[in-house]
Amino acid sequence: MPTHRTSRLIPCAALIVLAGCVADSTKKEASPDTTRLAPIVTVMPVNRGAHGMAERVLWVFSPDRKAVLVVADPGGVENEPVPNGFFFGDEARGFQTQMDSVWDVAPSPDWKWIGFGRAYTVGAGGGTGTDLLTDVSRRTAIDTATLRAGSFPASGMSLARAVAQPGVIHIPDNPRGQAAADSAAPRLFPIARGWRVRWTTDGSALALGNSPARAVDNEPSQTWSALDPTTGALHGTLPSSASLADVKFTMGPTLNRSVPFDMTTAVPIQVQRGQQIFTIQTNRGVITIADPGGQGSTGAQRVVGAGVALAATAGGKYIIALAPKANPDPSGLPYEAVVYTVTW
What we know:
mainly beta; 3 helices
């Protein structure tokens, strides 16, 4: 998938929110106003890095719909590669994490692992195309010769080059358990591969796709190698008996600077907590949760936040939405993909 670049890691605001984030964390991204007895709501942007000229919003739910992986996939002026941001949340296990600067991301078939390809720039475009090799080598623990061989064009109009480094996150069953933070921290491998990532259907290996043949954001991989996520062992090809899991993302809206998006209303979303059915509604650019039995203005409305709701997990803990940016760039998109976390 999927470039505004810095001289080091793409994009400039590449950050990781990890270590078993739980909804009752005292450190919040933002807290919309709530009333007495209302749920506690926090909000997290899906992508806090570069946004490009346009940006697709995609998501996929686990089979029980209690976990969700949301991806913000930007593209450049000429559909050049721009790194993605993603958010993962699991309401059953109480775990959530967010990461910027990845080329691709995929959940394992059992939803116990997240595989991703981290994005780095090795050439900013104004020099030889490999002027940042030494710096990236220190960051990735990959030697410069391997990085040079594994790099690929990141622009059709300059010498910019990039690399991918595979990584995994192991989702803890209990984020509050002893050593859960350590086990859930992203683990990166000293391998220059991972433009595309998939999992084998049995979940035993993370498949790493070869580098793109063209500097195009949605260029596929044609060949695959196999990485053992527990040992880090790399095999140059997939076993002949292996097949790749097909992750069916829902294609949400594509945000474009020149095309306005209706931020006033959306189709209601029903979620269930215990035996009660709640309705997530969007009205005049405000997302609310209606109490069971409430219809429109006649039912109690608990405010979630600004924006338009797109989808939600089964219990409504994670609400995917588009929301106005707090400090929009005059030349950029005025809104962004976010995930509201609702804690009752």
